[in-house]
Amino acid sequence: MHKLVSAALTGGLIALVGFLSMAARRRRAAREEARRTGSD
Fold first, then answer.
1. Whose CA is closest to 18, among 30, 26, 6?
2. Three-state SS for 18?
3. Cα separations in angstroms, 2 against 6, 7, 17
4. How far is CA 31 from CA 9, 15, 20, in A?
5. How confident is the model at residue 34 (pLDDT cuts 50, 70, 90)?
6. Rounded CA separation 5/13 (Å)
7. Is the dihedral angle over the CA atoms 24, 26, 28, 34 positive or is it negative?
8. 21: which of 2, 15, 30, 32 is 20 to 30 A away, CA to CA?
9. How much is the pLDDT for 38?
10. Alpha-carbon span 38 to 34, nearest angstrom
11. pLDDT class of 35 with cuts at 50, 70, 90
């Protein structure tokens, strides 16, 4: 039981970190795209 809980917590943490990094990357890409179209 304890092993299952710790595994679930670890999986949730990894998923959260992955989601945050993906969102940050997408936001940075959007900002770069806006800068590129704005400078034209």
1. 26
2. helix
3. 6, 9, 23
4. 33, 24, 16
5. confident
6. 12
7. negative
8. 2
9. 76
10. 6
11. confident
